Amino acid sequence: MRPIPSRIDAHGEAFATNRAAYELRLATLRERLQVVLDGGPGRARSIERHLARGKLMVRDRIDCVIDAGTAFLELSTLSGFGQYDDGAPGAGIVTGIGVVHGVPWMFIANDATVKGGSLLPVSIKKHVRAQDIALENGLGVIYLVDSGGAFLPMQDEVFPDKDHFGGSFYRQARLSAAGLPQMSVVLGGCTAGGAYVPALCDEVIMVEGIGRIFLGGPPIVKAALGEVVEPDELGGAVLHTRTSGVSDHLAATEQEAYGRLRELCLATNQRRLGRGPGWLDVAEPEPPLHPAEEIYGILSADDRIPFDVHEVIARLVDGSRFSPFKPEWGTSMVCGFARIWGHLVGVIANQGIIFNQEALKSTHMIELCEQRRIPLLFLQNTSGYMVGRDSEARGIAKDGAKMVSAVANATVPKYTVLIGGSYGAGNYGMCGRGFNPRFLFAWPNSRIATMAANTAQTVLVDIRLAGLKGEGTTDEEIEALRREVAHQYETQSDPYYATSRLWDDGLIDPAQTRDALGLCLALAARQDAPARGPGLVYRM
Ligand code: COA
């Protein structure tokens, strides 16, 4: 594979303008992440109370469990952003991948300083998403439980439906059956439904004085049975470890519990990172030839000005080496092979609109990767499939459908990064959320919507006017409608709106993308080979 020749002028004016604009975006991202890490507005009282009980903050707990000096890939840190009156930073739950004795685990840890760790609709989505990632990537799950269970005021949005609270218990049982260990440390109250999180685990550690498990808490017991009972007597760590057997290990302190947990993990017989069965070709990693931070100066400050995606690829892949597929054909789709942290990967990256040739070329590329068992990486930056008379006459609908069909049926691991616009069915063909990429990350410049705001205002105003058949609409009313639609589309295509709702697995700094993808690929490489699909290559 040859290195991609970089043509950017890192000292030029355009680069400096782009970079300055991107630094501002990153400052916003870091500021918003910091708010979550610090606790968010109005949480000082609950944090104080939490610490006064001698409890550790949720991220400090995770740090106690993972191997010293290793990174934790936190997912969807900004979930809940701008929702619930900004009262649920991180949706009150931390999920992510950490390494314990060299083995990667999924962590699901409640943040009891946010609404008592109870689960809001987005918290449930995040919990369930973490379990789905665990299942697909062969990860055991560590639950650090400190939760009030379902967020009762919104019980209709968290309790009864398929992927609601019940779905998390269903997944827990299925994960365990798939041989993926389910371990928990109980660090707070686990009431009613919440009791099943530890109860469904393979092994449970309870911390004396703070951990409690009961199907009905003291107030319910009093109301139902007239029994007056202290919380620890009803469901404390000593009762459950020495009498009921709901818990397997008793720890006097949190620190002791984490030491014990690390010890228990050693006996789970899980494959370590870097010890794969060998289905994926992994070479010695090489850093890219160009610094990843140069991506800030490559991405255009003005979304309407295109940038060369080869320059981005050159800053993500090993040695900046790239072996292009069909470079002379369908040039607004860049396809080719590269390595990330040594792992061979097939890259499909947009250079704007998807025309017929681009749709066919990508379909062919997906088929090649499927036949050769090579994971796929989609770098999305598209306004969608080409519309218009010529394009329709060339059958863009059926060529786009081939691509959508190929991506839906690809059995190799798929990963998606939103590096720019993600509009219309381009989102689907390029392996958007609906197509189950194993991980989907977004950059803070990304935008996702059915169409761009300027297109939407024209379309929606025209539809409204056609409905009124020209009757009784003043220019002011049309202008007001235009503004309303533009505002709606601007708001809803904002990357923070998207990440808040878990349309991605996290907004990340472009400079961190290579490392995040490297870990994701390493997870796949340590699993058995994915089941093979038909593996047919139809030349398009
Ligand atoms: N739904 C909604 N809010 C909840 C909640 C739940 N299930 N559990 C806790 N909260 C809120 C509390 O209202 C309180 O809010 P505030 O800070 O705005 O006053 C905050 O979380 C902290 O709760 P608090 O009871 O003060 O904390 P605690 O540490 O003393 O006790 C629990 C924590 C989880 C043991 C206790 O709140 C509790 O038992 N909650 C109800 C559990 C339950 O019955 N769940 C049903 C699950 S199906």
Can you offer a commentary on this structure?
- The strands form 2 sheets. Strands 1, 10, 11, 12, 13, 14, 15 and 16 form an 8-stranded mixed beta sheet that branches.
- It is built from 21 helices and 16 strands.
- The mean pLDDT is 94.
- The two termini are 24 Å apart.
- 40% of the residues lie in helices and 18% in strands.
- The chain is of the alpha/beta class.
- Residues 46, 115-116, 118, 148-153, 189, 191-194, 217 line the site of coenzyme A.
- Coenzyme A is lined by residues 46, 115-116, 118, 148-153, 189, 191-194, 217.
List keywords for this structure.
eight-stranded mixed beta sheet, 540 residues, globular, binds coenzyme A, 40% helix, 21 helices, alpha/beta
Q: How many distinct helices?
A: 21
* Bound ligand species: coenzyme A
Q: Helix- and strand-based class?
A: alpha/beta
Distance between the termini: 24 Å
Shape: globular
Radius of gyration: 25 Å
Main beta sheet strand tally, sense and closure: 8 strands, mixed
Return the average pLDDT rounded to an integer.
Answer: 94
- β content, as a range? 15-25%
Q: Give unreliable regions as ranges.
A: none
Assign a percent range to the helix content.
40-55%
Number of strands: 16
